Amino acid sequence: MDTVLSLATPPDSAFARILTTAAEALAQSRGLGPRESMRFQLAVEEFFTHLCQVTDADSGIRAEFTAKSHQVCVSFRFQASDLCLGALNASCACTLDGDGEASEDLGLILAGRVADRFRLIHEGGDSFMLYAEVDKAYPAAKAAPSAITFKHPYHAAPEQDPDRLMHAAAWAAARYPAWHCPASFQTPSKFADMVKAGQFSCVLAQDAASHPAGLLCWARSGEKGLSFSGPFVFAPQSDVPEVARILTDAFLASVAREKVEIVFSERATLDTPAGYFEALGSLTRYAPEGESDQPVLYRHLREDLGETVWADPALEEFLRAVYDRLAMCRDVLPAHPPGSLERKRSLFSTTMDKEKSLAVLRPLLDGQDMAANLAGHVRVLTEKGFLNLMLYMDLSHSWEAALAGRIMAAGFKPRLVLPFAGRSDVAVFQYAPNC
Amino acid sequence: MRQYGVDRLYRLNNNENALGPPPAAREVLAAFPPERGAVYPSGDCFTLRQALGEKFSKDHERFLVGNGSCEVITSVIKAFCQPGDNIVTADKTFAVYEWVAAFSGIEPRLAPLRDYALDPEAMLAAMNDKTKIIFLCNPNNPTGTWWSKATLERFLRAVDGRAVVVLDEAYIEFVDSPDFPDGMEVMERHPNVLVFRTFSKMYGLAALRVGYVCGGFEAVDFVKRTHLVYSVNSLGQLAAKAALEDDGEHIAATRRMVAQAGEFLRSTFDSLGLEHVSGAGNFIMARVPVPDTLLYRLLIRQGVMIRTMTGFRFPNWIRVTLALEPAMEAFAKALRQTLDKR
């Protein structure tokens, strides 16, 4: 069960000590190691200290800590009339001033680096929520499970047992390329903890002797979507279609009555049975040994009742073609780039997955430096060796949709649309290295 | 319709009666004086309950009327369940029992169908000492299968009063078989039986949302304590009463339409090589070679709306309401064109 702790403070850094003490206690309660505990405390302290400087003086900061089995998180709700968090960009480098002192953004840069991930939600007006997470460290998978002889018949059902899940995750990681697997499959006990925490749900196929024969797992994506991984099948090749089909049937039966609109996968395995999903398009998978196409699959769970999206003129033709091909009804409203912007520095969140050589950018704030910031992200991430750079744009926000032209000018190409994967549809852009 | 770019839409998704309400109900609707819109309805649907009592030869206090069956389902679950309890129903049946239980903090225990029909053994096996209600949709939506008198009797004897058994008979008026059990009669031998019926299907009053529960005095009184008053509007109460009193020819005409449409669609599905399932009720299910939700979008562009079955745990099946000839022909044409292109 999650532990939740809430604190409301004035924007005064004298209260930072209370927050770091809370952070330490929560990290200890979930068995985080000293390094992760320190990172969490540091993130809390630096974010809070910075927010004290930018929060409107007459408003407070509400901090909420959540300790889950696999991670600790903090969210800060605050009001700021001219928020600029440019130092959180992955492209931001620490600079020294003329006296050899670090710039005042050092704390924010540090906070962004020590947190495993963060996001900023604009809640309207001057209200924001900044959210940061630090994961518990887990041991890597041991040797792959040894081969066994499977016995018919197979069956599939929702699974929560940690030992079975760890076994299945380790097997999937050994059998399938990293691209198809959630990152937590590399550390199976983390995957089991994430299932326990409700971050993942899964169905497990078993044979007549209860040996794990396959796995399919999924996680929330936005309010209306579920992103699935799999089906991962461990049975002999001759049984793969059958096990994949019962996994898919069990998956759809499990989620059929959830309050979500769609399921989709950007990393479905080649074992996915035919006829269950529609193709949204494909992403190019760049790897040292070459490039290949990864189909992106989806399926509505109920009738599509239409949606309204915003579109930059540069993206409108692409969107209309996509919606026509998918026979989806959408009102496409014009989102025009702003004439001028008050905020100097734009902000992107960056999620990195080294196993997949994948970095995903999400726009959090627009700013005058958008073009330079995007170029900086591409440069830094490329230098770090990431071959697959994606950018996800939620088309429910007009300001975000209006970035499309500038994003495309920075070398990102629109590849596909994930219906209902965010607050609304999400456009997926991929950086084309040769563009 | 605007978003899909069509100017006509055949609604074959909600099992509405294409013939509309019976003549007497139409007259009530047409004659409703606008000034009555300012007056609150009867809070407990007194006159309608009296009409129901007369129709079924029961005391009107044994009836409770709600804003469609969905409200009545909610009231019954509230009345008989508390946290830690569970309900038993089928995995592939009308979804609202499961939904209401789940969001009320009551565990829904789901028994798989056997050969598209509710499985008495599986439902009994799903029961435990925390089971408070068993929901039986008879005929079952969406498969149209139903339990005979003997099957239901054996089941009720096996339950032996350990839980309330709800017979949801939303589609009973479409059944024309002497072997179909009439819940109104069954409840007299089994006091743990409650019966749900609705004016939304055969009686063509879906827009007005009127459904009801009937049972023993004590059970209905228990449900009343959790039930909102004033939830059923005046027009709905008046039209439902009129429909009840003028249903003979309407039911016969609807059954003729449903039979004709069923024959046409079974033939259509056969000619396309599509597996189909139908029984009692004004609907038919078919398995399609593409995701049902994709087919929905492709058909609606041609002015035909069907029900996808993924949410009923029948992925890649569709359910089609049996309606008048032009709608059936439009559906068949759109389906052929769509599948031919793929």
Characterize the structure shown.
The complex is a heterodimer of chains A (435) and B (342). With 435 residues, chain A is an alpha+beta fold. Chain A folds into three domains: 1-137, Histidine kinase-like ATPase, C-terminal domain (Heat Shock Protein 90), CATH 3.30.565; 155-300, Gcn5-related N-acetyltransferase (GNAT) (Aminopeptidase, 3-Layer(aba) Sandwich); 305-435, Aminopeptidase (3-Layer(aba) Sandwich). Chain A is built from ten helices and 19 strands. In chain A, strand 15 and strand 16 (358-365) form a beta hairpin. By secondary structure, chain B is of the alpha/beta class. In chain B, a hairpin with a 5-residue loop joins strand 9 and strand 10 (283-287). Chain B folds into two domains: 10-20 and 248-340, Aspartate Aminotransferase, domain 1 (Alpha-Beta Complex), CATH 3.90.1150.10; 23-244, Aspartate Aminotransferase, domain 2 (3-Layer(aba) Sandwich), CATH 3.40.640. The model of chain B has no long low-confidence stretch (mean pLDDT 96). Chain B contains twelve helices and twelve strands. A seven-stranded mixed beta sheet of chain B has the order 2-8-7-6-5-3-4, sandwiched between helices. In chain B, strands 1-11-12-10-9 form a five-stranded mixed beta sheet. Chain A binds chain B through residues 249, 252-253, 256-257, 275-278, 299-304, 306, 326-331, and chain B through 3-5, 13, 91, 95, 98-99, 102, 289-291, 293-294, 296-298, 301, 305, 307-308, 310-313, 315-316.
